[in-house]
Design a protein that fits this description.
The complex is a heterodimer of chains A (277) and B (356).
Chain A (H helix, E strand, L loop, with lengths): L1 H30 L17 H7 L2 H34 L5 H13 L2 H15 L5 H26 L2 H9 L4 H29 L3 H6 L6 H11 L3 H30 L2 H12 L3
Chain B lengths: L7 E12 L2 E12 L3 E5 L6 H9 L6 E6 L2 E2 L10 E4 L11 H11 L4 H14 L15 H13 L5 E5 L7 H18 L2 E6 L2 H7 L2 E6 L2 E6 L1 H6 L4 H6 L4 E8 L2 E4 L2 E4 L5 E7 L5 E2 L10 E12 L3 E8 L2 E8 L7 E6 L5 E3 L10
Parallel strand pairs in B: 3-8, 3-9, 6-7, 7-8
Antiparallel strand pairs in B: 1-2, 1-4, 4-5, 9-10, 11-12, 11-14, 12-13, 14-20, 15-19, 16-17, 16-19, 17-18
Chain lengths: 277, 356
């Protein structure tokens, strides 16, 4: 049969792709435990020394804190614009709506260099001093697209009849938004926030153009690499990898649960998740 | 009982509504009396749901006015109207339990907590749902959701309740039960109901008056008894109950259909008459004479229905349907009679149409 002759070949090909994707990461993680430094094969003297060193490294943790501040700000900013934009895309009819829908997604596809450079020119023209704030503004702007797409997907799934029922029962438009619309978009918004936070945490291109005196974590790592690689970098990268992976898994689980369309799941689960996020 | 003796609560005045190029309502006028159960009956696409949405305030009118209790209604936003709606798919809030669903309208209006508690309990008791206070809508059956939706609307003490095909999702038995309950609930709370349905049997069973809609206009507004016995149009006659439509002429005070003739006070010209199947009687059941119209019929086929038999008759060029008691034995050729009073002249928008 055709299938049986092709299957082994396909299987090894798939394995190759998998290795190509994950071997570097595996090596990165492995060498973060290597007592003999960055070189040498096979790794020997497995140790947690590099993690200990990392633990005492003030500069790294300052940059982590900076990244968290930037990411949190980016989340708030992009949601603040993204949620109303998603609702407008669904509800309002205005001239150029189709164009708006495409334009709002553009920053997702646009190379970070373009976004970074154009924002840099804007901030310089506006006389803004480069700082964490400019990075946060940059991330927020670039990631509005993510917020809009995620929340819009949630808006599409929502039953308009519920909002009409709310108005019918005497709730104003604002009360309806707060008591009916927002609870229904809750999971989409949490999902969007997680995704935006993760994307912002390891963003480098836009940050590179907009950075002031204080480094974000990816920029800190990058600048250290120029002075030479140490397994400490592997250690922090491993931590970032674990963090990104778990938040992506969390985001994916929220999303699939929502698509499952189970009302109870939508309604009951967020409370139990709240603590993990 | 046609409740025209009381003053109108709701007054719809030459309302027109268009969606793009389609005109859904064409200068429609309708009054609803206090404490009246009015059913808006029509096929899908007749504009009945749109009419309801205009009253509730979900759509703006293109022209015309809606008044309620001496106040202009159509200029108010939905949340300022003293009108509540029971939606077709119930539209219960899935993230709130039954109690909170019912309490919603009171909470957003800032009613004191103790009063909310009492009123919600009363409303849930009225629809017999007190045992499900803390259940989420997804956990209860369709019929129960229906009851909660009713309680959620009635707890706000509206002057007018709008119901958009609320029973269409229920199975036949539950449906009949809910019809009776709805009717007695309406008497109990003493407010006006405007009930939308496409089901003519339901409309007949439940209404004080039926407003029959067709293509954005009202075909006839009357009590179920009147609209059945005295339909004004061929459409009304055939949509509500079964009927035979006889196409003929009126000449000098006599109706002529084929070789049949009877006295008729209509003006001369082409005419259509509605004759209900139960008004076609076997000649043996009726004394001959008395001005009845006699027709020679060949019995086509019969459908047994328990108490009665639906019989298809070939009378000259025309096929007629009669309902005869099941006990009657029919021969192949029979003589049927009908009284001229039972042949109701109706307006026929496209005369020469088919019979049914």
């Amino acid at each position: 049969m055709n299938g049986s002759t092709r299957a082994p070949w396909l299987r090894s090909y798939a394995l190759l792709v998998f290795l190509f994707l994950y071997l570097p990461i595996a090596i990165l993680i492995l060498y973060s435990f290597n007592g003999g430094g960055i070189g040498g094969f096979p790794p020997k003297n497995l140790t947690l020394d590099w993690y200990r060193m990392l633990w005492d490294d003030r500069a790294i943790w300052d940059s982590v804190l900076n990244s968290v501040i930037v990411a949190a700000f980016a989340v708030v900013l992009s949601l603040l614009f993204g949620v109303p934009a998603a609702l407008a895309l669904d509800r309002a009819s205005f001239p150029g709506k189709g164009l708006f829908r495409r334009l709002v997604l553009l920053p997702l596809i646009l190379p970070g260099i373009i976004t970074g450079l154009s924002l840099l020119m804007l901030f310089v023209a506006a006389g803004l001093r480069l700082s964490l704030l400019t990075i946060a503004l940059g991330h927020g702007t670039a990631l509005i697209a993510v917020a809009v797409t995620e929340v819009y997907a949630g808006v599409l799934k929502m039953d308009r009849g519920l909002e009409e029922a709310s108005l019918d029962l005497g709730a104003s438009y604002w009360q309806t938004f707060r008591r009916v619309t927002l609870p229904h978009l809750r999971l989409s918004i949490i999902g969007a926030a997680l995704l935006i936070f993760t994307l912002s945490m390891d963003e480098i291109a836009v940050s590179f153009f907009l950075v002031g005196r204080e480094n974000t974590l990816p920029l800190e790592i990058w600048s250290r690499l120029r002075r030479g690689m140490t397994p400490e970098i592997n250690a922090i990268s491993t931590l970032i990898f674990v963090f990104s992976l778990s938040s992506i898994v969390l985001w994916y689980r929220i999303r699939t649960r929502e698509e499952g369309g189970l009302v109870e799941a939508q309604v009951l689960e967020p409370q139990s998740h709240g603590g993990n996020i | 009982m046609p409740a025209t003796d009381t003053s109108a609560l709701l007054s719809i005045r030459s309302v027109t509504k268009r969606f793009g190029r389609t005109t859904v309502l064409r200068g429609l006028s309708l009054d609803v009396a206090e404490r009246e159960f009015l059913t808006v009956l029509g096929e899908s696409g007749s504009g009945k749901t749109t009419l309801l949405r205009l009253i509730a305030g979900f759509e703006p009118l293109d022209s015309g006015e809606i008044w309620m209790a001496g106040e202009r209604l159509d200029t108010l936003p939905p949340y300022r109207r003293n009108v509540n709606t029971v939606f077709q798919q119930y539209a219960l809030f899935p993230h709130l339990d039954c109690f909170e669903n019912v309490a919603y309208g009171l909470r957003v209006r800032g009613v004191p907590k103790t009063e909310i508690e009492a009123r919600v309990q009363d409303a849930l008791a009225m629809v017999k749902m007190t045992s499900w206070t803390r259940s989420l809508p997804a956990k209860i059956s369709g019929g129960q959701q229906q009851r909660v939706a009713l309680a959620r609307a009635l707890v706000n003490r509206p002057r007018l309740l709008l119901l958009d095909e609320p029973l269409s999702a229920l199975d036949a038995n539950l449906r009949r039960q809910m019809q009776t309950e709805l009717k007695s609930l309406q008497r109990e709370v003493g407010i006006s109901f405007v009930f939308v349905t496409h089901d003519q049997e339901e409309a007949m069973a439940i209404s004080d008056r039926i407003a029959l809609m067709r293509a954005g206009t009202l075909e006839q507004v009357a009590s179920p008894e009147e609209i059945y016995a005295r339909p004004k149009t061929a459409y009304a006659a055939s949509f509500i109950g079964q009927t035979n439509l006889l196409h003929g002429q009126v000449q000098g005070g006599r109706a002529v259909v084929g070789s049949w003739e009877w006295p008729c006070s209509q003006p001369d010209g082409p005419a259509t008459f509605s004759l209900r199947p139960e008004n076609l009687l076997l000649a043996s059941q009726e004394q001959p004479g008395n001005g009845v119209v006699r027709l020679h019929a060949r019995v086509h086929d019969q459908v047994f229905q328990g108490a009665a038999r639906i019989v298809r008759l070939q009378c000259e060029e025309v096929t007629l349907t009669a309902r005869v008691p099941a006990s009657e034995e029919l021969r192949e050729n029979e003589i049927f009679v009908f009284s001229p009073d039972d042949a109701v002249p109706v307006k026929d928008h496209h005369a020469g149409g088919q019979q049914e």
